[in-house]
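The authors assume throughout that readers already know how a fold can be written as discrete tokens. Each protein is reduced to its one-letter sequence and a matching series of backbone shape codes. I therefore recommend that a typical entry be quoted early in the introduction. For illustration, here is how one protein appears when written out as sequence plus structure tokens:
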Amino acid sequence: MLMKIRRQHRSQVVIARTALTRVLSVLVLAVGLGTAVAAQTSTAASAARCNTAAHVYVNGGYIKYETDPIDGPVADLTVRNGQRYNVGGNGITPDEDPFWAFYRVSDGAHVSTIIGNRTGGNCVSNQKTFVSSLTPDTYIMRAYYYGGNSGKTISGQAQLRMIVLPALSATAQQSGTADLDKASR
């Protein structure tokens, strides 16, 4: 009987030590995994994941790279209301929506924003078509996006100067000429 009591007593002590050892093992394992995941995440975040440097474009030819100055030189693009134009980008952080804001040159007022297609895992924002509907005037089109490899935030990069003209009248569309003289009267 005495032997049986000691065994039970020892069993409870052994069980308590075993439980404590298991809890500590789980905590050490959790801390170790957390550290490993954090190290792996930071390595992956800093690694190049896009095939090109980040850039956005309008109509395929007006390209601005993340390394271009925010207020660098811009080219002119003339469109008529109702005319289509395309925007897109490459090398942009996956699952982001590049967007462009329009600011009237005469007073700097923000008048409109367009949002491009969300980038996929391949860092590409596929081309998206928009129809010009701004009031005839001159605007600076500014781009906002994130560099996929650099992680750099591009905020308000001057993309181009868009000169918006009135839509063609039905008569001008049929004849192929603009009827701007009547619009100005």
The first helix runs from residue 2 to 46. Helices lie at 2-46, 170-175, 180-183.
